[in-house]
Amino acid sequence: MSATPDATDVLVIGAGLAGLACARDLLAAGVGVRVVEAGDAVGGRMRSDRIAGFVVDRGFQVFNTSYPQVRRRLVLKNLRLRPFTPGALVHSTSGRLRFGDPVRDPRTLPGLVGGRLAGPRDLVALGLLSARDALVPPSRIKRLADTTTRAALSDAGISEAFVERFFRPFLSGVFLEDELETSARMFHLVWRSMIRGTLCLPTDGIGAVPQALAAPLPGNAVRLENAVAGLTDDGALTAEGREIPARAVVVATGPGSVRALLPEVALPAYRIVTTYYHVAPRSPVGEPTLLVDTRRRFLNTCVLSDVVPAYAPPGHALVATSVLGRDVPGREGELRPVLGEAYGTDTGGWDLLTVRSIEDALPAMTPPQPLTRTTRTAPGRYVCGDHRATGSVQGALASGARAAREVLRDLGRRGM
Questions:
Q1: DSSP 8-state code for residue 328
Q2: Within a 13 Å sphere around the CA of 166, how many CA atoms are in the beta-carbon half?
Q3: How far apart are CA 191 and CA 378, in angstroms?
Q4: Hey, CA dihedral for 76, 82, 88, 90, is it positive or negative?
Q5: Treating both helix axes as pointing N-terminal to C-terminal, what angle do 168-175 and 184-196 enclose, rounded to 10 degrees?
Q6: Contact residues for 233 (Cβ-Cβ < 8 A; gap 6+)
Q7: Distance of CA 119 to CAs 89, 129, 161, 212, Å?
Q8: DSSP strand E in 100-209: where?
Q9: Cα gap 258→256, rounded to integer Å
Q10: Per-residue pLDDT tens over the stretch 234-250
């Protein structure tokens, strides 16, 4: 490898969660690393924008405090996390129902035992399912024979009525598909994380998470607005025609760039989601909770400024509502009266602040779903991201960590 100012031991392409985790672990092991990112900030899909005084995440996102990689890498108090109410509100034809965690909030117990949402048998089955997922080590969950989430709920003794009334509308917003076809292994791991952790948002927006992850990196380690056009025998070629020599290259980008740079890598299909951000004069619900719809006319809706008041200027409320698929003409107009019905308020005066359609929001995770896989694609070539593990923050970070371990092993260095 020729000596040039850009030469490095390892080149990481992409400054999303996986790329940042990989870079941090490599640097900690004493390996020279350069991270190049096509965008103007770190984070990949995990970004926040400021629009007219509002904090707008790029698609509705939540942060789970229970993920092991999160707890290992971040000082959670520095994110100034604000929690959601455990559980969710369910809009149904018989009115608004509440699914809550009576262990964390005893006030939700009457709504559960009253029978409107679930009967006694379902509550027993739910308790057994939750206890098992909370207590069984993840390694055992990963070894389960895989099937669909719908089959897993049935096997757990959950009735079809309870599935349709709660699990299907709620999990549609988690897995971005409404047929419960996602891997049962993935469901059990996600359910475990929800039981053991707290869903939150950082006060400064979800983009604060990758910013905190990148903060310990040396100032010259990450180069923004540096797109890569292709890989070479000795490293990578930037869009400006400059070669960056490297002993190893890790591709940690979104699926579009992975396909362009490593066409031999098989990728799953990706779920598409659109989030509409409305501004209301006041909160229509007055609590930091998710609202789902049994008719599945939307995935979920939430008053973000009830979770984090700083998401909206004083005197305003910011409402985020997500739906499957892309934004198409007329869709927001059809959604508005549905939100009025769900929130029990007049939405005619709400202003549409912005719309975010995310083409590669989440990889499809149908069974059998491998929960981890090698990042090596060829000698000196690696790929990492949520598509190589569980499609989550934990999965992205764990994939980046695995890439670092495999690079270190191949370079003859001791890994972490």
A1: -
A2: 20
A3: 35
A4: negative
A5: 100
A6: none
A7: 17, 15, 10, 44
A8: 199-202
A9: 5
A10: 999 999 999 999 999 99
Specify whether the CB–CB gap between 195 and 146 falls below 8 A. no
DSSP 23-64: HHHHHHTT--EEEE-SSSSS-TT--EEEETTEEEESS---EE
Helices 184-196 and 120-135: crossing angle in degrees, nearest 10, is 90
Least confident range of 104-118, 215-229, 240-254: 104-118
In the numeric block, which tokens belong to residue 141?
């969950």
pLDDT-based confidence at residue 109 (cuts at 50, 70, 90): low
Strand partners, 291: 89, 301
Q: What is the pLDDT of residues 157-191, one digit of tens each?
A: 999 999 999 999 999 999 999 999 999 999 999 99
Q: Which of 377, 383, 390 is nearest to 404 (CA)?
A: 383
Tell me the pLDDT of the chain averaged across its residues: 93
- Kindly calculate the radius of gyration of the chain based on its CA atoms and give it in whole angstroms: 22
For the chain, the straight-line distance linking the first and the last C-alpha, in angstroms and rounded, comes to 26
Separation between Cα atoms, residue 93 and residue 236, nearest integer Å: 56
Strand stretches in 150-259, DSSP E: 199-202, 222-223, 228-232, 235-238, 243-251
What pLDDT shows up at residue 115?
61
Per-residue pLDDT tens digits for 340-358: 999 999 999 999 999 999 9
pLDDT, one tens digit per residue, over 274-325 is 999 999 999 999 999 999 999 999 999 999 999 999 999 999 999 999 999 9
DSSP designation for 85:
P
- Whether the full predicted model's pTM is greater than 0.85, yes or no, is yes
Task: Say if residues 273 and 358 touch (Cβ distance below 8 Å).
Answer: yes
Whether the per-residue pLDDT at 22 is higher than 50: the answer is yes
